[in-house]
Amino acid sequence: MKLITIIAFICSISLNAQIEKEPLASDTLAPTLENIKWISGNWKGEAFGGQVEENWSEPSGGSMMATFKLINDDKVSFYEIEIIREIENSLILQLKHFDNDLKGWETKNETVDFSLIKITPTQVIFEGMSFEKVSDNEMNVFVDIENAEGQVEIVKFNYKK
Length: 161
Prior knowledge:
Blueprint: H1 2-21, E1 41-47, E2 50-56, E3 63-72, E4 75-87, E5 90-99, E6 112-120, E7 123-126, E8 129-135, E9 138-146, E10 152-160
Antiparallel strand pairs: 1-2, 1-10, 2-3, 3-4, 4-5, 5-6, 6-7, 7-8, 8-9, 9-10
């Protein structure tokens, strides 16, 4: 009986810790492009030892589109094309990478996909990538990137409009 009480106590502590970390259910917004349109705009920052730029369109045609580039030593290191689109009552973020000469990293029909977890008034959380609204003119993007040792690192991109 004593063991069951201890297990129940540990489970309640764990559950309470998870609840405190998670936004309230009432903060969760519907998975629509309208609820994430604050991402749109021309964003610039620093990452990977260089300058980064990400340009997001306003929602239209059931999607948002972005281009990304990384510049190191006054030369483009790589580009990305990204989309967030509405699909099956949710959103999905998909992207493709390109060398500085537009040769693709992924195969012709392959994309890197990030499924939506949730949206709050200041966050859009996908599996492996999230957007955080700091202000109308600043946002952070967090990306899970696998390093050479196979470990996942979270890379933060701080952008300003």
